[in-house]
Write a structure and sequence with these properties.
alpha+beta; Globin-like; Alpha-Beta Plaits; Arc Repressor Mutant, subunit A; 3 domains; six-stranded mixed sheet; 8% strand; CdaR_GGDEF; PucR C-terminal helix-turn-helix domain-containing protein; PucR_C-HTH_dom; CdaR-like_regulators
Length: 421
């Protein structure tokens, strides 16, 4: 007969050991989801960050249950887990994916626990009792958490569909998909409340803050409206929430009208600091509706990769080439390293040399013009340009275009494509 107190004490020891590895175990589970549930990981960085926080808090909660003998029947889901379930509901991710994630996580954590049991315990009877305890308590904890999160998911999904027109979002998705028969433009315009026959500019607007922002969608809609007023659009903008902190926007332009950078900067100057905007080129008709949106999304991916130091406003006209090159960020990083060599080092000196060389090339190779733009002495520019060229793997004459593109990538994405110093 195995003493239950001995079982509890040994489990407390194992939980304490695993608690010190919580961050490592979180990383392993996120990698597991990347393989088995890639739809949960192949999203924007904010959702992946929230997933990681949810996993980490669930691991901590489970280990606290084992360390302190807490009854799992009285445990509530961690805050990050609740918020992640709500965001999945807002995005229409199937609830099955949420349940499957908890099943995979439970199996993986039990495997980690069993490995520790086998490593520390030689007595077969004690080992069996510990594993049975782990299985029972883990099952009770996960069952309770999943049951509550499924209810939260469903409530949020119902609320989201009620408050944000599902029919409109579905029709927009059909228009963007572009497959099948040509759309009935009259019917589509009636559903989405937006004219499709004219010229449009697509935008992605989002709030970059990790902290909760009260009624962020209203804030984002007001920013879109402020831009629309400045471009003197024709008709009504189309605002389609993506989740509670981001939205897709189309602005209908009057004939001959355009959207300028100063329109965007002025609207953002009046908004909260966390608001970000990416903008596509104007397009006409249903095809233009689709194309300008896809351009804004490409630039949005670039902005997310660049992180918090990215410009608040990015347009496809300004950074389209860079955006097209960053669909595979790892490949872009390798290409930058191959093109720039030691000049791609992520340090202060490398940054100075890269910026000087970039300005020198964009001003037509003029030391005088570069010095004026950089507000430096001409001799200092010459010195830095020479030092930068010495670090390049190949002569500037052979690879000038590649070097200019690589420097543009470094300027926009920073550490995301630079080499460790």
């Amino acid at each position: 007969m195995v003493d239950e107190e001995v079982v509890s004490e040994r489990i407390r020891q194992i939980a304490a050991t695993l608690e010190g590895r919580a961050a490592e175990l979180t990383g392993e589970l996120v990698q597991l989801y990347a393989t088995d549930l890639p739809q949960l990981v192949n999203d924007d960085e904010r959702m992946v960050s929230l997933l990681s926080a949810s996993v980490y808090q669930n691991i901590e909660t489970a280990l606290q249950i084992f360390r302190h003998g807490i009854d799992p029947a009285g445990v509530e889901p961690p805050a990050a887990a609740v918020e992640y379930a709500r965001r999945l509901a807002q995005r229409g991710t199937p609830v099955f994916d949420l349940i499957r994630a908890y099943d995979l996580g439970q199996a993986a954590m039990l495997d980690f626990g069993f490995q520790e049991c086998i490593r520390l315990v030689d007595d077969a009877a004690l080992l069996g009792a510990m594993m049975r305890r782990l299985l029972r308590v883990a099952y009770e904890f996960i069952t309770r958490v999943v049951r509550q999160l499924v209810g939260i998911y469903q409530d949020e999904r119902d609320r989201w569909l009620l408050n944000r027109s599902a029919a409109r979002a579905a029709k927009v998705a059909d228009l963007l998909d572009g497959n099948g028969e040509p759309p009935d433009v009259d019917a589509a315009e009636a559903v989405i409340g937006y004219r499709l026959r004219g010229t449009h500019v697509g935008m992605i607007v989002w709030h970059a803050s990790e902290a909760f922002v009260d009624d962020a969608l209203s804030l984002l809609e007001s920013v879109a409206g402020a831009v629309f007023e400045r471009v003197r659009g024709q008709g009504r903008p189309l605002f389609v929430p993506r989740d509670e902190a981001s939205a897709w926007v189309w602005l209908p332009l009057a004939p001959g009208a355009t959207i300028r950078r100063d329109h965007l900067d002025a609207a953002l100057a009046e908004a909260e600091a966390g608001v970000r905007v990416t903008v596509g080129d104007p397009g006409t008709g249903v095809a233009g509706f689709r194309d300008t949106h896809q351009q804004a999304r490409r630039v949005h991916a670039l902005a997310l990769a660049a992180g918090e130091h990215c410009d608040r406003v990015l347009t496809f006209r300004e950074v389209g080439t860079v955006a097209l090159m960053t669909s595979d960020l790892n490949a872009a990083r390798l290409w930058v390293a191959s093109t720039l060599g030691p000049l791609a080092a992520d340090d202060e000196n490398g940054g100075r040399l890269r910026e000087t060389l970039r300005v020198f090339l964009t001003t037509g190779g003029s030391y005088t013009a570069a010095a004026a733009e950089l507000m430096m002495h001409k001799n200092s520019v010459q010195y830095r340009v020479r030092k930068a060229q010495e670090l390049l793997p190949r002569g500037l004459g052979e690879d000038r275009l590649d070097v200019e593109l690589a420097l543009a990538l470094c300027r926009r994405l920073g550490s995301a494509v630079l080499s460790p110093a």
